[in-house]
Amino acid sequence: MAPQNFEEKVVWYSLIGTYIFFLLGAQYVVIPAIAWLLTLYVCKKLWIQTDKTLEEEKIVIPLSIWIWLISIIIMGLGMIVGHVDFELGLFKIIASTANWARRWSLWALFPLISCLNIRPALIYRGVCILCLQSLVIIPIAYILIALNIPDSAYISPLKFLGGGPMYYAISLHSFDIDTNQIRLSLFAPWAPALGLVANIYFLLVREEQNKRWRWIGIISCIAMIVLSVSRSAILCLFIIPFLTLVLKKINQPLVHVILGISSFFGAVFASLAIELLELFEKLFNSSRASSSKVRKTLSDMALYKWEKEAPIWGHGATEEKGPIIVASMPIGSHSTWSGLLYVQGLVGFIAFIFPLLWSFIDLLMKAQRTKSAEIGLSILLVLFIFTFSENISDLAYLYWAGLLIIGIAFKGK
Fold first, then answer.
1. Is the predicted pLDDT of residue 323 greater than 70, yes or no?
2. Each residue of 138-194: pLDDT tens digit?
3. Residue ranges of domains in the chain
4. Please, which contacts does 125-128 make with residues 24 or more away whose CB atoms are closer than 8 Å?
């Protein structure tokens, strides 16, 4: 497997060079820069495209990608309005625009980039190679832990580019006080982020045609998910394949019968089902009680301040430092939905949820016919589940390969 054109070379070396970027503390800067570079390349190809352009070289942008592009631009403009409303100043507007260009914009840019000639098989193999590298790094991390070598979390000098020091930190693991467990983060800024990207990679490596590479990828992804000790990640590992299978076969009579029977028994045993769900939620939250409490408090505070202070356009930015009750975490962080409402108000919330729902429906219909749409649907489901525990826009530079596959899925008939 080797790249065959400019765009494939960029994608290939960006994937297999992930740990190089990580060790330089440059991932958060390099990946968005690559996204904008390839976007300019798409624009160039569109500009020179004519009726005589070979069919396989033509750039065709699906409706779903246009919807994402328009929605993300609306979010960016809405963010600026929020800054103006709260008189945050020109410097803050510039900094927040830079963050938008490195975060939310990637949800539109990478699907757009997928309109270039990029083979899914190349992405699958690149992810498998990254997974092999991770299998080598994992025992090294535990050897360092066993030798009591402190994890110093070196911060790259690139932090002056903004976004928060954690995105430039070079750290392989962290220690969870609640559970007295070591949690690996590897090339991600924190452990749950590794669990998120490992779940997306798990969906990709399963499509690798070479059996040896496929199993290397699968084993590595499961190891990263388990060793991240992320509750959402472990949950996704088990339920996403089942959900995708049901949704993929939603048109089949057998599925209708099973869902009908399930609905009947669900109605009969509704009270028991509710009790079981409440028990599951309690167990889920109690596994890391302080973390769950901080997240809930942050979410409640964000929603209250959004409703009372800035319901339409939001506050424009997260609060730099929250109160002590939430361990000084910024209000508007740690949850996509409450964070969206706090930062970008109802305008930003609608600008994100509309293309998300559109994408779900589009991929659901196409998943009945194409494998790429089935994978794209699974990736979208993983991202949706993580919206309740992470601000997923902050991590788009990690799971960008998944956004590329979603874009490729949009092109299916």
1. no
2. 999 999 888 877 666 688 899 888 888 889 988 888 877 666 788 999 999 999 999
3. 6-250+288-410, 251-287
4. 125/1, 125/208, 125/210, 125/213, 126/11, 126/12, 126/15, 126/16, 126/401, 127/15, 127/201, 127/204, 127/205, 127/217, 127/401, 128/205, 128/208, 128/210, 128/213, 128/214, 128/216, 128/217
256: number of Cβ within 10 Å: 12
Q: pLDDT band at residue 246, thresholds of 50, 70 and 90?
A: confident
Q: Which residues pair with 173 in a beta bridge?
A: 184
CB contact at 8 A, 135 and 220: yes
Query: How many Å apart are CA 35 and CA 331, to the nearest integer?
Result: 29
227: left (phi over 0), alpha (psi -120 to 50) or beta: alpha
**How much is the pLDDT for 322?**
66
CA distances (Å), 118 to each of 6, 350, 378, in order? 10, 31, 20
Is the alpha carbon torsion for 406, 411, 412, 413 positive or negative?
positive
CA atoms within a 13 Å half-sphere pointing along the CA-CB vector of 194: 29
Q: How many CA atoms, within 13 angstroms, populate the side-chain half-sphere of residue 257?
A: 3
The pTM (predicted TM-score) of the whole model is 0.91
* Residue recorded with tokens 């769950």: 292
155, with CB counted inside 10 A (0-12, 13-18, 19+), is: middle
Residues of the chain by 3-state class (helix, strand, coil), percent to 5: 70, 5, 25
- Quick one: CA torsion of 350, 352, 358, 361, rounded to 10 degrees? -110
45-90, pLDDT tens digit by residue?
A: 999 888 888 877 889 999 999 999 999 999 999 999 999 988 888 9
Q: What are the residues facing 183 on neighbouring strands?
A: 174
Indicate the length of the chain as a whole number.
Answer: 413
Are 332 and 297 spatial neighbours (Cβ–Cβ below 8 Å)? no
CA atoms within 13 Å, Cβ hemisphere of 135: 15
